[in-house]
Every structure is written in structure tokens, then in C-alpha cells.
Amino acid sequence: MKPLNPHFSPPADAQDRKSISPVICYSPETLPNPNLGVLQALRTQAEKTGELIVAPRDAGCCDVPAGTFFRISSIEGAQVGDMNLWSKSDLTERFYSGKTRALHGTHVSTGDRLWSTFPNMRPMATITADTLDWYGFDEFGGSVHDVIGTRCDPYTHHLLQHDDYHYCCHSNLTRALAKHCDLSLDEAERHVHDVLNVFMCTGFTRDTGQYFMKASPVRPGDYLEFYAEIDLIMGLSACPGGDCSQEHSSDAAACYPLLVEVFDPGEEARAAHRISAPSGYDRSHGTK
Ligand SMILES: [Zn+2]
């Protein structure tokens, strides 16, 4: 946090330096077009082929084939979900929340893509529908579905509270991935990564830049829907924070299940899907 009383005096031209207008780091116009209209038309012919109910303070994983859609829904009460994505064929290719944030902003919605880690760096999923897109940004600078938080975890909790809590999203995702891929807890934990905070309402305070959360505006019936760009394993934790209005990393909040559904547009449509190639960078890193 920036000191309220700086240790160093501002230079004579401080105001001139601070008043320079910002520029957007990565222009969204230069990103490949996700052809949203085509995907949304494809969605109208898709039929439900599977579902997963994620219990409160727990997580689940499911396979989502490339060229199908998956939807995360609120079903019984306001609840946020922490989502991980892995390539089905290589768990080390996983969702890269930091780069997704740099490319699409702090909070994602329809038309944005979830990008994978280096060296592949390709779209893993495209958001095709978001019933909370009306929320935009509120008067506090908060919004929904962030890629700025990490995931609640027992290590930070131990650091700050000096005790152990075992149902943080990090632990829930670790147990779920271990079970889904028949891995040891130690192996699985190494693949759990920073999440997309589905339905969570967050931001940074305008005066101090501190990460904040507030009660999620999600209500039963709301959903966030994705198109799988590659063969995925999707992991979702129903956060112990519930709607994240008060606290997380405890059993204090009211928590509800989340519903995950997979929709298949048909074999022909899946066969026509083109999986993005890994990044074309030659990986010589200046040695040639
Ligand atoms: Zn959590």
C-alpha cells in the first residue's frame, strides 16, 4: 500500500508527471476475433450432455470437450465460485489469470477469452453469455467475475489467523483435481492456480488501491457460459465465503451449491471446430 505520508518530497514538476494521460497497454482491437455471433448461433442447437453439482465448501471437476459449451449457474442462493481450467492433455497448460487481466481488464464478460499459460498462450475458453453483464461497474469501482483475486487458501489464512482451515477454494480444488485425475494431493496441489472468480463482486479501493469484495449481486437463475476452445478439465469450488459479503476461509457464511452443465452442439459442429495453435513464438529467447 502506498504510504499516506510519503517519505520523499515531490519534485517541482510532480503534478506535470502525474497528469500525463494513460494509454491502454494491450489494445483489444489487435486480438483475434472470437466470432461471437457464430458461437451464439451454435449454442442454439446445443443439447445438454452432462451436469455436475458442486456442493458448498467443496469443489468438483469435469471434462469439457473442445467445441462444446459449459454453463455455471447459481441455483439456491447467492454463491461465488472459484474456477480453474487445465488442458485435458497437459495439466501444465492452465488458465493464466494475470495475462487474461492484462488483455481484457480486471473483470471479464461476454466476448472475452480465458488464456492459457506460456509457452502455449492460446484461448482455452470464450465467454458466450453473462446474465450479470448489466452490473457494469458500481460507484465503488466494483464489478463481477474478476481475474484480480487469487483464490482463498489455507496458507494466507494460516499467516493471518494462525490456525488451519481446510475448505478454502485452494484446498477444495486440490482435492477435486486429485480425485478427477487420480493424483496424490501433493501432485494435484501443484497444478491449482489463480482463478476466475465467478459471480464474485470485487475491486480496488480508489484511495488506497486495496482489494475489496462486497456481496455478490448473483441470484438463482443467473449464469456465466463458456465455449471450450480446447479439450478442458474444468474445476469449480463453491467458495466458503458464500456471497463473499463478510468473510471467507471459515464456516461462518451461508453457502449454496453451484450447477455446471455441458451443452454439445453436435458431432458435425465439434468436428468443424478449429483448435488454436500454441503461440508461434520460436522460444529462442535471444540466443539465436
Ligand atoms: Zn474461495
Question: What's a concise summary of this model?
Answer:
The protein has 288 residues and is an alpha+beta fold.
Describe the overall structure.
It is a single chain. With 288 residues, the protein is an alpha+beta fold. The chain has a domain at 51-218 and 228-255. 18% of the residues lie in helices and 28% in strands. The chain contains 7 helices and 13 strands. The chain has helices at residues 14-18, 36-43, 97-104, 154-161, 169-181, 185-189, 267-272, and strands spanning 47-54, 59-64, 69-74, 81-87, 90-94, 113-115, 123-130, 143-146, 196-204, 211-214, 223-228, 232-238, 258-264. The strands form 2 sheets. Strands 2, 4, 5, 8, 9, 10 and 12 form a 7-stranded antiparallel sheet that branches. Strands 1-13-3-11-7-6 form a 6-stranded antiparallel sheet. Strand 9 (196-204) and strand 10 (211-214) form a beta hairpin. It is globular, with a radius of gyration of 20 Å. The model has no long low-confidence stretch (mean pLDDT 96).
Strand content: 25-35%
Structural class: alpha+beta
Largest sheet: 7 strands, antiparallel
What sort of overall outline do the alpha carbons produce when their principal axes are compared? globular
Name the hetero compounds present.
Answer: zinc ion
Give the CA-CA distance, first to last residue. 41 Å
- Let me know the average pLDDT: 96
Any low-confidence stretches, pLDDT <50, length ≥5?
none
Helix content: 10-25%
By DSSP, the count of extended strands is 13
Please tally the helical runs, counting DSSP H or I stretches of 4 or more residues.
7
**Order of SSEs:** HHEEEEEHEEEHHHEEEEEH
What is the rounded Rg?
Answer: 20 Å
